[in-house]
Design goal:
By secondary structure, the protein is an alpha/beta fold. The protein contains six helices and eleven strands. The chain has helices at residues 25-28, 67-76, 92-95, 175-183, 193-198, 228-237, and strands at 56-60, 82-86, 101-105, 113-121, 123-128, 138-139, 148-149, 166-167, 189-192, 204-209, 215-222. It has a five-stranded mixed sheet, with helices on one face. It starts with 24 loop residues before the first helix and ends in a 9-residue tail after the last helix.
Amino acid sequence: MANQGRRPGKGAGRGTPVRRNKAAPAERFPPQKPKKKTAKVVFDAPQPEPEAPRTFRLGAVPGATPGKWIDAWKQRMPRVPLELVPIEVATQREALDAIDAALVRLPLTDESLHIIPLYDEVPVVIAAVDSHLMAAEELSAADLEGEVVIGLSDDVLGPLDLPGTLPAAFAALPTGEAIATAASGVGIVIVPMSLARLHHRKDADHRVLVGAPTSTVALVWPRDRTTPDVETFVGIVRGRTANSSR
C-alpha cells in the first residue's frame, strides 16, 4: 500500500494539543479587594453666638426732628429697636450718661464728647395772630421796639440784643405757656422755628427775626461709647447707605 513503510508523523494519533494561558484563571481575574471602611468625619463649624437683645436709645431736645433718620434705622436695623428719649436743653449733658446718643442744641463744650453739628435754625417772633407785627413778612430788631418780651424758663437762644424792648413783668414761663400768653396779646416770644411749629396755635403766628443768632442742632455721644450701633446711626445721619464704607 502507498502509505505502508512510512513513519507516522510527529504527534500523529495524540490529538491536537490545547493551548493554555500560562496564568491561572485566578491570576488573570484577581478578586477586587474589599474597600476599607473609613469613619465619616463631620466638621462642625462653630455656630455664631446669637446677638444679645438690645435697644438703641436716642435722646432729642424739644424741636429736634429725627423722624427720617428713625425711619431709616428701622429699615437698616430691624432687630434693634430705637427708643426716642425726650431730654431738656438744661440737662442735655447729664442725659447723655443714660443714652447712646442725642440730638442737642449747641453750645455744648465737653472734650469727652463727639459733636457733629447738623443744621441751624433761624429764630422767629411769635405774637397774637391779629398783632400788627404779623403784617410784615419778616421782622428785625428795630421792628420790636416797645414790645414786651416774655422770658422763657427753658430758653435755648440765650440773651438777645433787642434794644427798646421791655421784659415781661412776670416770671419766666415754659415755652408752651409763654406762647399761649403771647397768643392772648400779652407780649411776644422769640424761639427757634421748630419750637414755634411744635407749639403751633390757631390764635398765634410767627415771623422770622432777621439778623438774630441761630440755634444749632447737633448729634452728640460720649467718645468712650462709640459702639457699632452709634456708628450706624451716624452713617444714617450723614446719608451713607448700608453698603457705604466708613
